[in-house]
């Protein structure tokens, strides 16, 4: 190709542009349904090249040679490049490539091959880089998103060098310790690239973790989901992994309190703990101060000494930022209006309800910091600020006479967004005015009180509110958002139906590739093709979280993320299972599903045993009937019972809340063995149900469905309904408990479960009935979206056949 491009005269009468994209690991741009194979591209390029050369050269033999050269070279490249599967998009599909930037005029994550003058131009939207490697048989283009840039930057500098720079800056700022959390100022689970400070410093990029650097050591705390990944990513010569929740592993406050005691005993002066007030929860700062005070009580002397002090380094640059060259800019992507047909409640009605609760609490102002709270409150969504989450960077406040949105002006620039907010009576203010406005409100009246959830708000906001003026409680949006209205729930149901159709198409493709064609398919290609099938569904925006596609041992890394060039990258064939955890963000709903697949002719008996017990746990939770006001942790045992019977367990929770066209992880409820979350389950909530089992170095198994919680009236059958595939038919009992309300689960996820991995002999009849009934529901709802005679339809029908019980 490039030989020919270099020989095309610059005076070519027609410029030919060929758009090439290779999906980035972060942006998950959609694979277009109208794509060209490399071979067909060759014919297009050859024809254009040949025509141009014929016009400008009398040597027709050369143009014929060009046609042959390009076609054969491209055919070879197609075979060599089959594992990467780049996509060639016509010009009119460029909008699908600019999802992250939110601007249809920007061709993001793509490369233009411009035949005029033999030039190769990279067209980029925001901070994107292009790496190229050429050979006679392969051309590789990798477009790297901002998140990938963070990862690349983190790996470029050694742990020793980064920590040396950190300690130099810490000394200049007069602190002995510096804490680096995963958070942004809104304490988000997934954060914009500019706030991936902990990832940059540690080279560990999981969504949860806190780093702590002292003068002579460095530590990373993370939870059980990431023990495996963190141990692989951290430089063990410079970082110590602190496995949260494990015996003898101290919490950060207790660790620092012990360190402060030792430091004070040795140096007779307080330990200076540096932190950025904007990226730590207010509750964390309180825990630290309480831990220091408790430790000081054990010191000798009549008056407990000050053994440690928090220094937020106000007016100074975040220490990680000061060593991070090329740190990405903060995003300013515009909001979009979330239509009423999906929101189900106007902004005005939400504000009215919140003000009513403020009156009960005697609050004169409520502050909202969590980005999904703000998106819900104002019926807006955003793409590009936070990867896979339809939320935008902003704060909000509600007082008696004002509703304010604090954000960059570019976020409300679209005319429909501006009009929408104006009609709702919302005043748009500068993002940086939030702290001063809280202070002004408090100074305006001695009786003014601010309602702010310290657990979901940063320390910089909380510390300006005197304790007597602070109402520290769960904010009113949290509960409103968790219990979906009918419009929101209907959108969630529809999202899962189209998601089922996407998965049927994907599984038909994957099974054919592995079983029929005998291919070995990379985890990256699996991710890309699955996203491509989702992208064909109406209302698809982006994935709801980075896809987890783990072959064999990678399936045991709970939040694994495949990447080209990684030493961990594996290829799926018939010898190993694959765990795929994925989901989609649709305009009307959010999905999250996990299935474990194995295409072996005769899967290992031990694997089938564990798989079946994980499925039994899933059915155990799904089938529960429980009284209202039951905390989620009460149900957790039913997910683990079958595994416990053979001495096995899993380290993560069983269920998390899910937003309606919002974040895939949403509070306040959950299903977990940890008793700390006593939030009760209520009708209208959505929760995941995802028991699993993981054998490090071998495989991972997880089966996840999303469920909606519905109320059972006193006259209803205490069943999830045979017609809906939600409970065995032989459990027909009436609910009658002196007026107490009972709840059950309704299914949202509509994706078959692989039947030949199930050991029928350890399943009960009720469980087998559940499975057949579930598959009946899947077939009934997903089948209308598929065409008769297609591979997807054939796969779905076969997968939903009743299980053989002999």
Task: Report the count of strand segments.
Answer: 36
Cα distance, first to last residue?
59 Å
Globally, the shape reads globular
Main beta sheet = 6 strands, mixed
Main sheet strand line-up: 10-9-8-7-11-12
Q: What average pLDDT do the residues reach?
A: 83
C-alpha-based Rg, rounded: 28 Å
Strand residues, percent: 15-25%
Explain what the structure shows.
Strand 30 (655-657) and strand 31 form a beta hairpin. The chain contains 23 helices and 36 strands. Helix 8 crosses helix 9 (282-297) and helix 18 (486-516) packs across helix 19 (523-535). The strands form 11 sheets. It has a 6-stranded mixed sheet with strand order 10-9-8-7-11-12, sandwiched between helices. It is 34% helix and 18% strand. The protein is an alpha+beta fold and 806 residues long.
Question: Features of this protein?
Answer:
806 residues, alpha+beta, 6-stranded mixed sheet, 23 helices, 36 strands, 18% strand
Task: Produce a short descriptive summary.
The chain is an alpha+beta fold and 806 residues long.
Please give the structural blueprint:
Blueprint lengths: L1 H5 L10 E5 L16 H19 L3 H21 L6 E3 L21 E4 L5 E2 L7 E6 L4 E6 L1 H11 L2 H15 L3 E4 L16 H6 L7 E4 L4 E5 L4 H7 L6 E4 L8 H16 L3 E4 L7 H16 L10 E4 L7 H5 L11 E3 L2 H4 L3 H15 L3 E4 L2 H8 L1 E3 L12 E5 L3 E4 L8 H9 L2 E4 L4 H10 L6 E2 L7 H4 L7 E2 L4 H7 L3 H31 L4 E2 H13 L4 E4 L4 E4 L19 E2 L5 E5 L1 E3 L2 E2 L2 E5 L7 H18 L3 E2 L8 H9 L10 E3 L8 E6 L14 E4 L2 E4 L3 E4 L2 E8 L29 E6 L17 H18 L8 H9 L7
Helix pairs in contact: 2-3, 8-9, 18-19, 18-23, 20-21
């Amino acid at each position: 190709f490039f030989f020919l491009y270099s020989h095309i005269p610059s005076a070519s009468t027609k410029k030919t542009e060929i758009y090439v994209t290779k999906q980035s690991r972060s942006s998950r741009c959609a694979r277009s349904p109208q794509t060209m194979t490399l071979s067909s591209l060759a014919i297009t390029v050859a024809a254009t090249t040949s025509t141009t050369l014929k016009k400008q050269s009398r040597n027709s033999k050369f143009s014929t040679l060009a046609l042959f050269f390009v076609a054969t070279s491209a055919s070879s490249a197609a075979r060599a490049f089959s594992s990467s599967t780049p996509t060639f998009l016509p010009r009119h599909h460029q909008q699908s490539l600019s999802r992250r930037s939110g601007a249809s005029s920007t061709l993001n994550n793509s490369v233009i091959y411009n035949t005029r003058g033999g030039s190769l131009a990279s067209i980029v939207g925001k901070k994107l880089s292009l790496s190229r490697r050429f050979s006679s048989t392969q051309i590789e283009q990798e477009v790297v998103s901002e998140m990938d840039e963070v990862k690349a930057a983190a790996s470029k500098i050694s742990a020793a060098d980064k920590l040396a720079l950190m300690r130099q800056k810490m000394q200049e700022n007069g602190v002995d310790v510096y804490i680096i959390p995963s958070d942004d100022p809104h304490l988000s689970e997934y954060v914009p690239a500019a706030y991936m400070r902990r990832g940059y410093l540690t080279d560990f990029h999981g969504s949860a973790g806190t780093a702590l650097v002292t003068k002579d050591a460095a530590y990373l705390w993370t939870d059980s989901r990431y023990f495996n990944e963190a141990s692989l990513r951290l430089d063990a010569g410079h970082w110590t992994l602190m496995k949260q929740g494990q015996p003898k592993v101290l919490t950060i406050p207790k660790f620092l309190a012990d360190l402060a005691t030792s430091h004070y005993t040795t140096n007779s002066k307080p330990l200076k703990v540096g932190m950025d007030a904007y990226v730590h929860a207010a509750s964390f700062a309180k825990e630290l101060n309480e831990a220091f005070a408790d430790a000081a009580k054990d010191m000798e002397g009549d008056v407990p000494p000050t053994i440690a002090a928090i220094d937020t380094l106000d007016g100074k640059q975040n220490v990680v930022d000061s060593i991070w060259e090329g740190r990405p800019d903060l995003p300013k992507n515009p909001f979009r209006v979330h239509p009423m047909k999906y929101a189900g409640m106007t902004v005005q009605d939400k504000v009215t309800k919140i003000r009513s609760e403020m009156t009960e609490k005697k609050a004169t102002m409520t502050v909202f910091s969590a980005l999904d709270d703000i998106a819900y409150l104002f019926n807006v969504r955003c793409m590009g600020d936070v990867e896979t989450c339809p939320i935008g960077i902003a704060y909000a406040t509600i007082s008696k006479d004002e509703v304010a949105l604090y954000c960059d002006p570019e976020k409300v620039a679209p005319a429909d967004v501006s009009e929408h907010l104006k009609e709702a009576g919302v005043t748009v203010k500068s993002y940086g005015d939030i702290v001063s406005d809280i202070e002004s409100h408090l100074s305006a009246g001695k009786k003014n009180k601010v309602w702010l959830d310290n657990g979901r708000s940063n320390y910089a906001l909380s510390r300006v509110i005197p304790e007597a003026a602070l109402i520290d409680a769960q904010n009113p949006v949290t509960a409103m958002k968790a219990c979906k209205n009918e419009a929101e729930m209907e959108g969630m149901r529809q999202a899962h139906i189209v998601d089922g159709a996407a998965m049927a198409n994907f599984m038909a493709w994957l099974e054919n590739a592995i079983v029929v064609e005998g291919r070995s398919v990379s985890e990256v290609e699996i991710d890309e093709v699955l996203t491509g099938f989702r992208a064909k569904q109406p209302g698809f925006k982006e994935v709801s979280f980075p896809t987890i596609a783990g072959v064999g041992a990678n399936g045991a890394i709970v939040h694994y993320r495949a990447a080209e060039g990684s030493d961990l990258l594996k290829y799926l064939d018939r010898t190993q299972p694959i765990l795929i955890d994925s989901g989609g963000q649709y305009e009307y709903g959010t999905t999250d599903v996990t299935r474990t697949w194995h295409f072996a002719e005769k899967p290992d008996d031990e694997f089938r045993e564990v798989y079946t017990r994980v499925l039994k746990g899933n059915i155990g939770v799904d089938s529960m009937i429980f009284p209202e006001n039951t905390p989620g942790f009460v149900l957790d045992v039913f997910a683990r019972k079958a595994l416990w019977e053979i001495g096995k367990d899993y380290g993560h929770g069983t269920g998390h809340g899910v937003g309606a066209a919002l974040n895939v992880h949403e509070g306040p409820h959950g299903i977990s063995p940890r008793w700390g979350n006593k939030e009760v389950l209520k009708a209208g909530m959505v929760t995941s149900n995802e028991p699993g089992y993981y054998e490090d170095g071998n495989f991972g198994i997880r089966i996840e469905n999303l469920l909606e919680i519905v109320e059972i009236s006193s006259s209803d059958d205490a069943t999830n309904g045979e017609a809906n595939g939600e409970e065995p038919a032989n459990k027909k009992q009436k609910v009658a408990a002196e007026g107490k309300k009972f709840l059950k689960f309704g299914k949202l996820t509509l994706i078959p479960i692989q039947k030949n991995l199930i050991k029928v002999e350890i399943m009960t009849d009720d469980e087998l009935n559940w499975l057949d009934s579930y598959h009946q529901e899947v077939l009934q709802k997903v089948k209308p979206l598929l065409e008769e005679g297609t591979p997807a339809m054939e796969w779905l029908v076969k997968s939903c056949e009743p299980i053989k019980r002999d």
